[in-house]
């Protein structure tokens, strides 16, 4: 139950104070009979994690507002392993959006089986391109951070934690589907806002995970975008619609 998970994570030193980012031995103390007391951080003298008493909806709203405390709660003080599935689903959303735009630009309405097969292949191709672009973006971020602050990414667990944070913080891409379903004249503007929101979330995830200032995460994201756009340019030179 929750007590077993709490003891396991405490043994690994996985807890963090959501206010000052210092390690904590426990999030709360269980006095039995349903009496819990939130632990106080020895460094900042504030509750280690006030969100353990909050409703998940409130936590989600705080995460959408890009509050560092909410990000620390999710990344360090909870056991969430949906980053892989979330990444695949976001890529499917992006691939579907590109595939839909490609179909809109095509005037061929022939119901022939060969045409339907070609359209299906187009979706798989868009998924592959979206995956390569996402990989290039992440590689650009990792290379920049490793070059600027190599002490921050010394172990495999450091890389895995940052990768998990980046994938989880890309949840804003899920808004691509409703933006397309409820299509209107402002759809391109909505897509631009979604892109900006995802980048802001990525920046906050890097900042919280590595405990950095605001400048370096944005620098890493900038180089990640350069590498991603380089891949897009390469595909365009090959004559592919992206």
UniProtKB/TrEMBL annotation:
GO cellular component term, pick one: cortical endoplasmic reticulum
Keywords, comma-separated and alphabetical: Endoplasmic reticulum, Lipid metabolism, Lipid transport, Membrane, Transmembrane, Transmembrane helix, Transport
Single biological process term from Gene Ontology: sterol metabolic process
Cross-referenced Pfam families: Arv1 (PF04161)
Membrane topology: Multi-pass membrane protein
Keyword Acetylation recorded: no
Main location: endoplasmic reticulum
Parts of the chain that traverse the membrane: 82-100, 123-147, 159-180, 215-235
Compartment(s) of residence: Endoplasmic reticulum membrane
InterPro entries tied to this protein: Arv1 (IPR007290)
Function, as annotated: Mediator of sterol homeostasis involved in sterol uptake, trafficking and distribution into membranes.
Family, per entry: Belongs to the ARV1 family.
Official protein name in the record: Protein ARV
Native source organism of the sequence: Alca torda
Name of the gene encoding the protein in the UniProt record: Arv1
């Amino acid at each position: 139950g929750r007590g077993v998970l709490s003891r396991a994570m405490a043994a690994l030193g996985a807890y963090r104070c959501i206010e000052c980012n210092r390690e904590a031995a426990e999030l709360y103390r269980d006095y039995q009979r349903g009496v819990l007391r939130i632990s106080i951080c020895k460094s900042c003298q504030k509750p280690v994690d006030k969100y353990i008493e909050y409703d998940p909806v409130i936590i989600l709203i705080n995460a959408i507002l890009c509050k560092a405390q909410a990000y620390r709660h999710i990344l360090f003080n909870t056991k969430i392993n949906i980053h892989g599935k979330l990444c695949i689903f976001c890529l499917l959303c992006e691939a579907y959006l590109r595939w839909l735009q490609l179909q809109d630009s095509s005037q061929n309405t022939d119901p022939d089986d060969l045409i339907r097969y070609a359209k299906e292949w187009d979706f798989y191709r868009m998924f592959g391109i979206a995956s390569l672009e996402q990989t290039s973006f992440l590689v650009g971020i990792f290379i920049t951070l490793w070059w600027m602050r190599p002490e921050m990414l010394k172990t495999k667990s450091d890389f895995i934690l940052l990768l998990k944070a980046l994938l989880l913080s890309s949840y804003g891409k899920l808004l691509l589907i409703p933006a397309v379903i409820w299509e209107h004249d402002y759809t391109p503007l909505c897509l631009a806002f979604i892109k900006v929101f995802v980048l802001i979330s990525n920046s906050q995830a890097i900042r919280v995970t590595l405990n950095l200032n605001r400048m370096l995460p944005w620098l890493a994201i900038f180089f990640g975008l350069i590498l991603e756009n380089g891949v897009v340019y390469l595909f365009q030179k090959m004559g592919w619609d992206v």
